[in-house]
Structures are given as C-alpha cells and as structure tokens.
Q: What sequence folds into this?
C-alpha cells in the first residue's frame, strides 16, 4: 500500500494506538484500510488525486476569517485531512463518480467544524463538475446555517475584492437574510446558499449537495426526507449531516447515527454511506482529561485544553452543566439530568432558620403549581436578599386531598401523614384538591408580603386564577416549557450549589428536590420534568419555586408567550 500524508499523520497512528480515539472512530478508520484491500472486489477504487484535490483547494485558497488566525491560510488538522481524503477520494470504479452519497459526521463543538465545512461546500459548488450545482448549508434556523456558509462566503468576497476575474465569475449577494453566491456557467448558474430547515419551503429545490448542520436539533425527519428525495436527479449527490450530539433522543439525527454505526460494526452493508463519530466510550470518565481527545480530535489546536478544564470544573459543580458538558463537549447523547440536586448540598441550604413572620413586608415573587389529581399543590414565594451577604429565602406551602394522604403515603413512599401532623402539608376535603385554602393563602401572602408577581401555569388553573385576578393578584403566566422555566431553573440551581439559598429545611420540598430530573431542549436549556423524575415521586414544590424564580430574574421570555393579567374564560 502506498502511504500518503494523511496515512502517516493520522490514519495509521490511529490503527497502531498512537492516537487516542474511541471505538467508533477506530472502526471508521479501519473501514477505510480494509476497503483499500477489498474494495476493488465491490467495484470501488480510491483516487488519491481526488482526495488531494479537495485538500489542496481548501488550503490554497481559503484563510481563517476570525480569531487570532484571521487572515492566515486555512491548514487542515491531520484528522480533517484524513477524512477529507477518504470522503472525496473513494470512487465507483466503473463511472469514476463519488462513492459516498450520504454522510454522518459527529464531533464535539469548537473543533473547527464550520471553518472546515464551509470551504468544503464551496468546493462542491465550484469544482465538483456538477452542471448547475446547487449547494445548500441547511440548519434549523438560517442564522445557524450561516455558521457553515459564512467561512466560504467571507473568503469568496475576499477573492472578489482582490481579483477582477473573480468578480466576473462570482456574484455575491450580501443583503440581510439574502446572502448567497452564484457562479455563472454555460449550462446555467451554480448556487451556494444557506437555508433554514423548513420542509414547507424546500419544494422546487434541485440540490446537488446539502451540508446539514447540527442535525441533532431536528425533531422530525420531514426535512431530511424532503432533501434526500430532491437529490435524486443528480449524478453524484451528497447529503451530509454535520453535528454535535444533542438532547433529542428519538429524532432523525439518532436514527441516521444508528444507521452509520450499523455500517461501521458490519451489521449492515452500505458502500455509499460515509461517516465517523467522535465520542467517549461507555466506561470512560467524562472528567478524565485523558479521554477528552476521543470527542475532540482538534484538542490543542482549534480547541484548547484550558477551555475543556474550565467546562469540566463547571460540570463538576452543577448537574445541568454536566449534561451540557457531556453533550456538547464530549458528544454523549442525553436529555435529562437525573438527580438534579445533591441532597447533601441541598441540606446545607436548610441551616439558616427563619419564620414566615420574619419576612413580613419584604418584596417577593411567587409561583403556583396546581394539582390535577395525584399531584401535590404547591405555592412558593422567593425573597431576594436585602443585603449582599444574605441568601435568597424560599417559602413553600403544600396541599393534598384528604382521601389521598394514606394512599400516597404508600404509593410515593413518603410520610404524608407525618408531614400533615407537623404542619408541612395541609389537607383539603374530598378526593381532589380544594383550591379554597390555596386562594386564602395567596391572599394572606398579599397582605403579609410585597408580592410583585405570581407566576402560574394556565393548565388546570382557569377558575382559581380568574378569581385571583378579580382580587387584583398580580398574575403572570409562566409557560411550562424551557422558554418559560429555564431562567428560574438556572437561577435556582446556581443558588443551591452556590450556598445562597435558604429553604428552612422544609421536608416536603426536600423530598421534591430528591425526586426531580431535568429535561433539556436542543439548545441546552433545561427545566424540571415530571415525566423523567423519580417514579411515584412528586416535584411540584420545585416546579413552583422555579416558576417564582423565573419571575424574580425578570422572566426573559418572548412577549408572545406570556399572558400578563389575563386568563381566558
């Protein structure tokens, strides 16, 4: 076998164990070398010239456009050079067309993905030999698609500033949300543009290549299917997913990922599918610096060790930060943080003792989580500190139907009856919670404290909230999604783990804290989630507290998601 620079710098050292990689990357590299031995029997050949042509194009014509390397030539890392050669070097022996028409490329953030893939897209637009090429950078939003498109866009603009020939060859459109590039040709123009992933707006496209950025953020497979079917008219199409891991475990991204893994593991034959997955192995410790390179092949180059160390320290301190560290920096898929609160840390916040009377007259924000049938009803107040050295104070009242106390004491493995006797849990008559006592407690709080806002969940709250509105209680709806709950959830977590919260040792709230798990959205925002929390456990007090904190921190919510002072009848 003739060896080339990407073999000596990356491929062969991986096989010899000289470069630390995870199992899936090892299998992907091994696949290439096994195909060099056996691919000819399946009608495949590896063209060194084709692979090198893409590499030379990128390194010769492109420069970094931002950061400390801005203006300097874009030189690919060894791992990038290897995969570029593999992806574009493999050919069908009978036609000479590209072997790979589908691809899945997964690597942790800040490894130079966009800087590399933008020029790759430009190659497919300019140099692929496709008549009337249409190359699209696709992502959930157009702004995200621009992150892949922009490195190529900025470089082509640079060419046009320096060369009259480039200005004649390329039309660069720079209007806001109109950015695209067109290359005129005898058989028609070729286009490279960023577009948002909206299945309704993709009809009529005839793409030759699609670079789908951050596929993990796609909840459904509609856009992927539309784009895949649109490629059918091209002689050597390419649909490539470029992504980090994410939080949506049942979306199209995990489906495509699983397909690639089946190819790498040899349980499925598909010579047209290319890819690699940079991630940790199952038994790796995410806080062990020695394994970070498995998810970060650019560690020490595009991504610094000091950055990883900083993120790891945050991850060691906050469960939500650990989930984000695993997903975005180590490429480990997850969508919850079980055991949000370390109960020993939580208990330290109970050492500051206070009574409700001590807080009279103080400014506060509220959250109200009303029960359906089995849930607790919880009303929480959070009091900002009056001095810098004081903690935030939390008061929470709980209610439960009398008929449920004995039943839930057994089902939830929680001493409801004891909490009733001790006064931590109030009992209402009947099989479902009577909101009369809840209403009276809210009105009493209005008298005793300076209640600025009371956050509520519209579901199951219409009658009570209409009554409270008539009594001029300052109600503000807090949507039960990450948009509504993330600000308060984040603040609550920070205060607990920073030792800046005082909850008075409320045992019902403590039990809620033990039960709660988090749900993350595709952007890494999080909120408490009842479905993922401990089975038969209750988290209503934590939900109410997070709602209160969402209002206390200013409720950074879109105006169209908040209904203030209004409840539909």
A:
């Amino acid at each position: 076998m003739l060896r080339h620079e990407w073999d000596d710098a990356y491929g062969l050292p991986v096989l010899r164990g000289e470069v630390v990689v995870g199992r899936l990357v090892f299998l992907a590299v091994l696949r290439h070398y096994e195909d060099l031995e056996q691919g000819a029997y399946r009608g495949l050949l590896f063209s060194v010239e084709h692979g090198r042509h893409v590499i030379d194009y990128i390194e010769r014509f492109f420069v970094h456009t931002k950061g400390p390397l801005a203006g300097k030539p874009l030189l690919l890392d060894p791992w990038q050079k290897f995969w570029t050669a593999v992806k574009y070097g493999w050919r069908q022996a009978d036609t000479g067309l590209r072997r790979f028409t589908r691809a899945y490329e997964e690597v942790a953030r800040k490894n130079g993905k966009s800087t590399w893939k933008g020029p790759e897209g430009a190659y497919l637009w300019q140099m692929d030999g496709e008549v009337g090429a249409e190359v699209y950078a696709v992502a959930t939003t157009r702004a995200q698609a621009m992150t892949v498109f922009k490195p190529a866009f900025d470089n082509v603009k640079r060419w046009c500033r320096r060369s009259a020939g480039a200005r004649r060859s390329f039309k660069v459109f720079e209007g806001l949300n109109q950015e695209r590039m067109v290359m005129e040709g005898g058989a028609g123009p070729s286009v490279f543009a960023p577009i948002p992933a909206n299945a309704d707006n993709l009809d009529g496209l005839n793409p030759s290549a699609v670079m789908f950025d951050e596929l993990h953020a796609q909840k459904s497979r509609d856009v992927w299917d539309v784009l895949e079917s649109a490629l059918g008219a091209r002689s050597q199409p390419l649909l490539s997913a470029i992504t980090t891991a994410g939080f949506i475990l049942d979306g199209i991204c995990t489906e495509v990922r699983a397909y690639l893994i089946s190819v790498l593991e040899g349980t499925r034959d598909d010579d047209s599918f290319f890819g690699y997955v940079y991630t940790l192995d199952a038994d790796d410790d995410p806080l062990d610096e020695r394994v970070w390179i498995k998810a970060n092949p650019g560690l020490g180059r595009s991504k610094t060790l000091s950055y990883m160390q900083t993120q790891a320290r945050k991850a060691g301190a906050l469960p939500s930060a650990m989930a984000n560290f695993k997903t975005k920096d180590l490429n480990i898929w997850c969508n919850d943080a079980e055991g949000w609160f370390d109960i020993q840390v939580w208990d330290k916040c109970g050492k500051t003792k206070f009574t409700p009377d001590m807080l009279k007259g103080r400014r506060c924000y509220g959250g109200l989580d009303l029960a359906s049938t089995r849930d607790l009803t919880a009303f929480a107040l959070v009091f900002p500190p009056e001095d810098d050295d004081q903690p935030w104070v939390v008061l929470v009242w709980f209610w439960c139907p009398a008929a449920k106390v004995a039943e839930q004491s057994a089902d939830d493995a929680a001493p409801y009856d004891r909490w009733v006797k001790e006064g931590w849990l109030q009992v209402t008559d009947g099989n479902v919670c009577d909101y009369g006592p809840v209403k009276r407690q809210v009105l009493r709080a209005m008298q005793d404290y300076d209640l600025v806002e009371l956050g509520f969940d519209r579901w199951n709250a219409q009658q009570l909230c209409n009554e409270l509105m008539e009594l001029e209680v300052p109600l503000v709806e807090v949507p039960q999604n990450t948009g509504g709950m993330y600000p308060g959830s984040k603040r609550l977590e920070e205060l607990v783990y920073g030792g800046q919260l005082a909850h008075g040792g409320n045992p019902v709230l403590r039990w809620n804290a033990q039960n709660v798990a988090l749900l993350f959205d595709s952007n890494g925002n999080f909120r408490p989630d009842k479905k993922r929390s401990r089975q038969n456990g209750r988290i209503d007090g934590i939900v109410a507290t997070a709602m209160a904190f969402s209002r206390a921190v200013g409720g950074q919510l879109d105006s169209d998601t908040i209904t203030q002072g209004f409840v539909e009848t």
Remarks:
- The radius of gyration is 29 Å.
- The CA atoms of residues 224 and 248 lie 15 Å apart.
- The first helix runs from residue 5 to 15.
- Residues 555-569 have pLDDT under 50 and may be disordered.
